[in-house]
Design a protein that fits this description.
2 strands; 52% helix; 5% strand; Pyr-dimer_DNA_glycosylase
């Protein structure tokens, strides 16, 4: 499962659509609809949140908002608890930097325009559901 801690604005179309789908899958697992064992560290952060479904709902709401900004039609009604609350799931700065480098490597191969755009970023922003610690 690929849930990104970087802000969704950095993702290309393929990445944003994949993130939406992965987030919906995570929501199903958290809601007990799927019995899947996931070991991704970000996934574990959601499981440990005070209210995991609201936390993933916030995550998905921000992803859907980025999609809407770009003109995509993500089905907001698929979010069990849509909200824009700040859950402040902790993420280390070095993890955010590593993840941005990983994303830029992907963008270099599949979306040169987005790759060029992200190369201008001096300070990487986290997804609004996360906070740097």
């Amino acid at each position: 499962m690929s849930l990104w801690t970087v802000h969704p604005k950095y993702l290309d179309k393929q990445g944003l659509i994949s993130l939406w789908r992965e987030g919906l899958l995570a929501q199903k697992v958290l809601n007990g609809e799927l019995d899947v064992k996931l070991s991704n560290p970000i996934w574990q952060q959601f499981r440990q949140a005070e209210n995991p479904l609201k936390a993933i709902g916030s995550y998905l709401s921000f992803v859907a908002a980025e999609g809407a900004r770009r003109g995509y039609k993500f089905s907001h009604e698929k979010i069990i608890y849509p909200n824009f609350e700040d859950y402040e799931i902790p993420v280390r700065p070095q993890d955010l930097i590593f993840e941005m480098k990983h994303l830029r490597d992907k963008l270099k191969l599949r979306d040169r325009e987005k790759w060029n755009e992200t190369s201008q970023v001096e300070k990487v922003e986290a997804h609004p559901t996360f906070r740097l610690n």
